[in-house]
């Protein structure tokens, strides 16, 4: 992952100090691009352990058009928990300890961290066992899956962007319109978190499928390793669906930042030597991208350095 290491070094050397929505503060650069040849191995971070199973379950969640954290929590995937949790603790129905600014406070106050973990466990249990609670507080609004699979039209219908782009790749591979967008201005304010990875485009040449993602906001230490692996996986899955090989994954980012409370972790990661990339394995008995389950997708030969923990800015 030489490209990623170079990006981290570039931000540390050239980044501008900026404030942000979370109040954490960042070092940021604007406009950056990395290119990964997917034939050289699957781009899963090796300088720190990255949970591939979580990447798979989140991507399949998008692909299914789901927007409720219930199915993620059932898969023991807690990537989106904080945003759903915030909806509950900010509501009039919540009567527990004050959870204001829980993301930052949990990192600074051991007693508050204990209370936060208790309330989060209560929240997760209620999501799994109370359908009405899950419907009210587990749904994140019209986030990625909704836009990919059920984009609302002005005539009251919906557009399945993902299925349409797959059919277009199969039937008109040279088209320059193989696009899927998650940024829907009409509904941005209804989303728990407006899409960070806003649009992606596919390109077919020499029997290979390439993908370029435009990401408006990139949390380089925590989020970006997931984003790279997720869209690399999506490229593999759609290439397989369309009878193509894989080409490049091109990652283009807008506000590309390191949070101020991730600096020591980044420096630790930069001291590590990258290892060989793993190989992606997909169950050959499942033909359709829409029928795949988490157990059908894995990597072999993944030998990363240990995980490095860092707080999530919510």
Automatic annotation (TrEMBL):
Task: Give the organism the record lists.
Answer: Planococcus salinus
Tell me if Methyltransferase is a UniProt keyword of this record. Answer: yes
- Give GO MF terms, alphabetically: thymidylate synthase activity
Can you supply one Gene Ontology CC term for this chain's record? Answer: cytosol
The cross-references to InterPro entries, in alphabetical order and at most eight, read: Thymidate_synth/dCMP_Mease, Thymidate_synth/dCMP_Mease_dom, Thymidate_synth/dCMP_Mease_sf, Thymidylate_synthase, Thymidylate_synthase_AS
Q: Kindly provide the name given to this protein in its UniProt entry.
A: Thymidylate synthase
Extract the CDD domains matched here: TS_Pyrimidine_HMase
Which EC number(s) does the record attach to this protein?
2.1.1.45
Name its pathway: Pyrimidine metabolism; dTTP biosynthesis
Which family would the database say this protein is a member of? Belongs to the thymidylate synthase family. Bacterial-type ThyA subfamily.
Q: What is the lineage of its organism?
A: Bacteria, Bacillati, Bacillota, Bacilli, Bacillales
Per UniProt, which keywords does this protein have? Cytoplasm, Methyltransferase, Nucleotide biosynthesis, Transferase
Q: Which GO terms of type biological process are on file?
A: dTMP biosynthetic process; dTTP biosynthetic process; methylation
* Residues forming the catalytic site: 196
PROSITE patterns listed in its UniProt record: THYMIDYLATE_SYNTHASE
Report the function annotation for this chain: Catalyzes the reductive methylation of 2'-deoxyuridine-5'-monophosphate (dUMP) to 2'-deoxythymidine-5'-monophosphate (dTMP) while utilizing 5,10-methylenetetrahydrofolate (mTHF) as the methyl donor and reductant in the reaction, yielding dihydrofolate (DHF) as a by-product. This enzymatic reaction provides an intracellular de novo source of dTMP, an essential precursor for DNA biosynthesis.
Entry's HAMAP family? Thymidy_synth_bact (MF_00008)
